[in-house]
């Protein structure tokens, strides 16, 4: 499994490749102009921000468990309590 710090420093195309090969899709939410797909890779959650208008992935980053966006995920699924 890839180290979190190494993953964070990868270019977006490499992050997507790692998610495709080693990640598990969890859930998708709509957030402002994005469709955000949440993936689990190892014990870390990763968000993929897809912009419909531009038809592209704009960013791939580790989920911040303190972000207000967490509520959108917990409305649909049960996340581990250490994230809440």
Question: Which features does this protein show?
Answer:
single chain; 84 residues; alpha+beta; 3 helices; globular
Written account of the structure:
There is one protein chain. With about 80 residues, the chain is of the alpha+beta class. It has one domain. The chain is built from three helices and four strands, in the order H-H-E-E-E-E-H. Strands 1-2-3-4 form a four-stranded antiparallel β-sheet, with helices on one face. A hairpin with a 2-residue loop joins strand 1 and strand 2. The model has no long low-confidence stretch (mean pLDDT about 90).
Unreliable segments of 5+ consecutive residues: none
Query: Counting H and I runs of at least 4 residues, what is the number of helices?
Result: 3
Which term fits the overall shape?
globular
Task: Tally the structural domains.
Answer: 1
Based on secondary structure, the structural category is alpha+beta
Largest sheet: 4 strands, antiparallel
- Average pLDDT confidence is 90
Report the portion of residues in β strands: 35-45%
- Compressed to H and E, one letter per element, the order equals HHEEEEH
Cα(first) to Cα(last) distance is: 25 Å
Largest sheet, spatial ordering of strands: 1-2-3-4
- Determine the fraction of residues in helical runs and give it as a percent range: 25-40%
Radius of gyration from the alpha-carbon trace, in angstroms: 12 Å
Number of strands: 4
